[in-house]
Write a structure and sequence with these properties.
6-stranded antiparallel β-sheet; 78 residues; single chain; 6 strands; alpha+beta
Length: 78
């Protein structure tokens, strides 16, 4: 089952979507393409940049999913 989170507004015309793909993992998509993931480890949300989970690189740690997703989106757009 896939759960779609509310759309994240980006600074460009790109459309970002965050989907739950496992109890402790979110997938971040930008215009339908996977750009990263967010792992939930206790209270910490780890932002990972990359379109394939095994090769994604950690870019940030935050205390909420929104900030982690925004970190992934900002990194993917730069």
């Amino acid at each position: 089952m896939t759960i779609t989170a509310p759309q994240i507004t980006t600074s460009t015309t790109a459309r970002a979507t965050v989907r739950s793909i496992a109890p402790e993992r979110l997938r971040v998509e930008l215009d339908g393409e996977v750009v990263g993931f967010v792992d939930i480890v206790g209270q910490v949300h780890v932002a990972l940049l990359g379109n394939m989970y095994p090769y994604a690189v950690e870019i940030a740690q935050t205390l909420d999913a929104d900030s982690a997703a925004h970190s992934v989106i900002a990194a993917a757009q730069s």
